[in-house]
Amino acid sequence: MSETVSEEVCVKERSDGFIEGIEGVLPGESATARAAHESLKGDRRGLRKLWPFLGPAFIAAVAYVDPGNFATNVSGGAQFGYLLLWVVLSANLMAMLVQSMSAKLGIATGKNLPEVCRERFSRPVAFLLWIQAEIIAMATDLAEFLGAALALNLLFGIPLFPAGLLTGLGVFGILALQRRGFRPLEAVISSMVGVILVAFAFQTFYTQPEADRVLAGLFTPGFAGTESVLLATGILGATVMPHVIYLHSALTQRRVAGRTEEEKKRIFRFELVDVVLAMGIAGVINISMLSMAAAVFYSRGLTGVADIDVAFQQLRVLEGNTTAILFGVALLASGFSSSSVGTMAGQVVMQGFINRRIPLFLRRAITMAPALIILGIGVNPSRSLVLSQVVLSFGIPFALIPLLIFCRNRSLMGALVNHRLTTSVATLVVTLIVSLNVFLLYRTFFG
Questions:
Q1: Is 353 in the same domain as 242?
Q2: Per the domain annotation, does 49 fall within a domain?
Q3: Residue 15 domain-assigned (yes or no)
Q4: Number of domains in the chain
Q5: Mean pLDDT value of segment 129-142
């Protein structure tokens, strides 16, 4: 059988949904593969040019609008009004930088962050990094699983333990989409991000935050005492999530592989647009969330509203059923999507650090257990959400510092090595995030 092979680099779609480079274009290639090839050649324009590359950052963005963000943003808006909006904006700008570096590592090396750690660090160090990453993955999954169960309880009155079982079934269904390739999974998770965005857009319309105070809060840094500093640290900790730093590099490592350094740079430019779009949407959601809490609770002197279930009930009383239901639907979409992403991240962590894999459904079943135990014994789910954010603070340095070290290494990154300015800004961001999380941990245990 004759085959016509182009001299240009091309891409093909694998059975697992990733796309990898081959020597040329073969007859019968998939539509996604052809589209990616055309984009790399410059034959496509506008959104059609970007379309084959969009998706990884939207999966990562789910972690930036997870139930932990609901807890910290509602608490921040209720206690301090619009004061901490600049923290939300700053955190999302930092997230853009961090996630772009993670995506860049996958594109440049063809490996994810845990795999590079395993290759570059000694075996004991890689093993210890794996242990802490597994603990972080469990804490992440706990928060996201509890968020979905709580949403089912608030919306439909289902007791928390049965709601937890239903959450597990729902996440199993979402993860099953991977058998059809990565595009269906990306579509479902991106749609859930869209549901959250639309829900908070309507809530903003109904609650009508003061536009001038929103703008002032976004661009006027300031605090109101130690408690506001602590809450700002919590907002930052709930925004920058270690598990998606690992995951994002895995989502880009073989999605589209360029043969040359120039092709890798072009692929990264496409992925950078993906990051800016996805993280921008996540930022708008977080800003809307905090502004809504400020408009509804802070303006009425209800500064003690911190728990998600209390916020839901107060929204129903103060703003009516529609606003409360929109809040609950957004929380449900957040819990289901982020719990699925958390399970995927856990798989990447195990495969990367110790080169072992277990079936995704078995991993989902194992990570469900702690959340079901907490629901079964009646622990306050909102309190468990907050405590999970504290655990996450431990893991941030172990993901960020290796990422920074690798992205400044020219022999590893090639043409995609960080520019000196990028490294300087990233070093400042990493130092700030790590310092604030150390402060949060100190206040939690000794304050």
A1: yes
A2: no
A3: yes
A4: 2
A5: 85
CA distance 303 to 289: 15
- Kindly state the DSSP code that residue 418 receives in the 8-state scheme: P
Indicate which CATH number applies to the domain containing 157: 1.20.1740.10
Rounded to an integer, the average pLDDT of 60-71 is 90
Angle, helices 381-407 vs 226-239, to 10°: value is: 70
Could you report the per-residue pLDDT of 261-319, keeping only the tens digit for each? 998 999 999 999 999 999 999 999 999 999 999 999 999 999 989 889 999 999 999 99
Segment 203-249, tens digit of pLDDT:
999 999 999 999 999 999 998 887 888 788 778 766 778 889 999 99
Give Cα separations from 18 to 196, 240, 252, 253, 341 (angstroms).
27, 26, 9, 9, 16
Q: Tell me the pLDDT tens digit for each residue of 342-386.
A: 888 988 999 999 998 888 778 877 777 888 888 888 777 766 776
The answer on 68 and 213 residing in a single domain is: yes
105 neighbors 406 (Cβ within 8 angstroms)? yes
Query: Both 38 and 73 in a single domain?
Result: no
Dihedrals φ, ψ of 406, to 5°? -70, -40
48 part of a folded domain: no
Q: Show the beta-strand stretches assigned E in 80-175.
A: none
Do residues 145 and 339 touch, judged by C-beta distance below 8 A? yes
Q: Do 23 and 78 have their domain in common?
A: no
396: Cβ contacts below 8 Å, ≥ 6 apart: 237, 240, 242, 433, 434, 437
Q: Same domain, yes or no, for 91 and 9?
A: no
Rounded to the nearest 10 degrees, how much is the dihedral formed by the CA atoms of 303, 308, 312, 318? 10
Half-sphere exposure of 364 (CA within 13 A, CB side): 22
Instruction: Give me 222's structure tokens.
Output: 């300031």
The reply to whether 130 and 265 lie within a common domain is yes
Can you read off the two tokens belonging to residue 257? 């592989």
Is 118 inside a domain boundary?
yes
Residue 72 and residue 104 in one domain: yes
Give rounded-to-5 percent helix, strand, coil for the chain. Answer: 80, 0, 20
Which residue, chain included where needed, has tokens 């089912």? Answer: 152
Q: Where are the alpha helices (DSSP H) in 208-307?
A: 211-219, 226-239, 242-253, 261-296
Burial class of residue 331, CB neighbours in 10 A (0-12, 13-18, 19+): buried
Domain hosting residue 113, numbered range: 54-446
